[in-house]
């Protein structure tokens, strides 16, 4: 019996195969990046607004992007991997990084699990020489800042907010980088120290602002 996942893979093959969709056929990994970002953002929005129906739809859209890239790879000389290869590699990775479930390691709580995960990851990526290796620099700025704050601690670099250490007068051309940028980084450092999610907090504030804007727009204009 064919599973629904198999059916979706078949739909992708039909769309990208001979006589299929011209638009799908001409796409590349690079051309699809914008759609992957957009679909991921829509999924995050559905999760944070607690909308299960939309979440289900957006999970499908993100899954479709994964299948699209795998189908492209299967047809691209020099790549040659399929969705089955992706699934196999991911299953092996998850088993390897959970020795407390699939092996003899022990992890009594979530913090211990993170330690086990990081240790397994270090073994897998033994060729990395910097704590910054593997960090995607295209992440949203706040998420990237939070990631780097964590990596700085692993490198032994103690970060403290710079408040009070900046010069009171800043040249206008340096205002954005020296003042605003440092202030934002201070907020991230402080949030990380308190175990808070600065990216999620900002999205929540932006969502509340959007609600205020809609409320304002709904009022009768004089």
Automatic annotation (TrEMBL):
Residue ranges annotated for the NTP pyrophosphohydrolase MazG-like domain, each copy included: 27-102
Pfam families the UniProt entry points to: MazG
CDD domains: NTP-PPase_MazG_Nterm
Membrane-spanning residues: none
InterPro entries named among the record's database cross-references: MazG-like_dom (IPR004518), NTP-PPase_MazG-like_N (IPR048015), NTP_PyrPHydrolase_MazG (IPR011551)
Protein name as annotated: MazG family protein
PANTHER family from the UniProt entry: NUCLEOSIDE TRIPHOSPHATE PYROPHOSPHOHYDROLASE (PTHR30522:SF0)
